[in-house]
Amino acid sequence: MPHVVIIGCGFGGLAAARELADADVRITMIDRTNHHLFQPLLYQVATAGLSAPAISAPIRDILSDQRNVTTLMADVTAIDVDARAVSLEDGSRIDYDHLIVAAGSTHSYFGRDDWARLAPGLKTLADAFEIRRRVLMAFEYAERESDDRRRQEWLTFTVIGGGATGVEMAGTLVEIARHTLRGEFRRIDPQSARVVLIEGSDRILGAYPADLSEKAREQLQALGVDVRTGSRVVHIDEQCVRYTNFDGEQSLASRTVVWSAGVAASPLGKSLGVETDRAGRVPVSPELNIAGHDNVYVIGDLAAAQSDGKPVPGVSPAAKQMGRIAGRNIKNRIANRALESFVYRDYGSLATIGRRAAIAMVGKFKFSGFSAWLFWLFVHVYFLIGFRNRIIVMSDWAWAYFTFKRSARVIPATMHLPASHDPDRPG
Ligand SMILES: Cc1cc2nc3c(=O)[nH]c(=O)nc-3n(C[C@H](O)[C@H](O)[C@H](O)COP(=O)(O)OP(=O)(O)OC[C@H]3O[C@@H](n4cnc5c(N)ncnc54)[C@H](O)[C@@H]3O)c2cc1C
Questions:
Q1: Atom 52 in ligand 1: which residue has the minimum CA distance?
Q2: SS3 for 389-421, per residue?
Q3: What is the per-residue pLDDT across 65-108, written as a single tens digit (0 to 9) for each?
Q4: Average pLDDT across the chain, whole number
Q5: 156-160 and 194-198 strand pairing
Q6: Active-site residue, 168 included
Q7: 266 Cβ below 6 A of ligand 1
């Protein structure tokens, strides 16, 4: 039986495996984590609204009924397209007849990788735990701080990047400060916390039409976020963020910084031997193959795919649709049938801003506010993987909506370093 190797069990890889469920192939699914992650709700874990199992599920469990799949938890370190083999982190190699590379993307610090330690980005569960720890610990340190200036630095949260993730993070951080923590501290007033959203271009949510982006800005400001557009970050350290805007260089004293400004494709794309674009994405044919290798498919965030002459956005529906086409084209090739070309179907875009605030674009319809927020809730619960996850998320959200409380605020002991040992707490 032909051997299909799939690298990455995210949205694209999982869709491909499912498409191949009825095929006479042997599939090896390789992922460096043991879970499939619903990234659109990751910010909820980072802001203590949901626990990790609510938005993730073990890959073995998801694929347990699919008898033609073997799951391996391993890190793919290289791909040799000429030898038709992938290398794993322990030095072993796995041969394939057909390969689907669905390794997704990672953060980009635009050449300033030293900022990663100071301003973590949000991509994995580990990132979400780290951001959650920093946010919750900032309030703890502020409560223990006797110096007014340092206390205010702990109570200033900066989000860099006004795309969907930055907007979600900023809106939710305000909610934590204004509502969730109300009445829990004795020396500080959590409501005095500031949340600043810094965006380089002249508007937030730049992928949306200007009127919706303006609506998002109004809703964010109404929630209490300080939105600073046209501001390019030039320096980050443990105590401050510096940025340039129309008036020159500005300094913002802030000890908790979250990065949501840049995305780069998985470095695995580079080992395919084809030239990648500036974001590291791999150019693919309409059938989703790389040049010169019609048994190698690249899909999802890692692919620089085109549809109707336009670049396909790095979103989960596009990854799933590509996964299905790659799976079908493997079946077509085995059966000597004509291959299908990928055509992206855009069902719309949604971005949540905070409690009862969101924007939505579905076909020609654009709407914002409470109705968009309700629609956002419905869509995200609907697309979550697994019945159990839907129940957990719905009950946690209902609880949070009526009580303003967030259910995942426990900081595990290993994460709770004493202040003197915490690398994030400089004196
Ligand atoms: C915080 C956040 C919020 C988002 N919100 C939305 C949203 O609201 N709506 C939307 O449509 N899209 C959203 N996206 C984008 C969406 O999640 C991606 O477009 C989608 O996940 C891409 O799917 P993929 O299959 O290409 O990659 P992924 O889903 O990222 O999966 C890649 C998989 O590959 C594995 N992997 C990577 N490298 C290796 C390796 N070397 N070896 C083994 N395994 C490896 C990873 O562990 C992962 O499981 C969001 C993304 C993030 C980070």
A1: 39
A2: HHHHHHHHHHHHHHHCCCCCCCCCHHHCCCHHH
A3: 999 999 999 999 999 999 999 999 999 999 999 999 999 999 99
A4: 94
A5: parallel
A6: yes
A7: yes
Percentage of the chain beyond pLDDT 70 is 97
Closest to 71 in 3D by CA, of 45, 35, 25: 35
User: Are both 3-32+74-107+263-334 and 113-261+349-421 of the same fold?
Assistant: yes
29-49: pLDDT as tens digits = 999 999 999 999 999 999 999
Question: For the domain bounded by 113-261+349-421, which CATH number is listed?
Answer: 3.50.50.100
Average confidence (pLDDT) over 308-329:
97
- Which pLDDT does position 8 carry in this prediction? 98
DSSP conformation letters of 109-166: -TT-GGGGTTS-B-SSHHHHHHHHHHHHHHHHHHHH---HHHHHHHTEEEEE--SHHH
The amino acid occupying position 288 is L
Q: Which is it for the CA torsion 40, 32, 67, 334, positive or negative?
A: positive
Of 130, 168, 175, 199, catalytic: 168
Assigned architecture for domain 3-32+74-107+263-334:
3-Layer(bba) Sandwich (3.50)
Domain ranges in the chain?
A: 3-32+74-107+263-334, 113-261+349-421
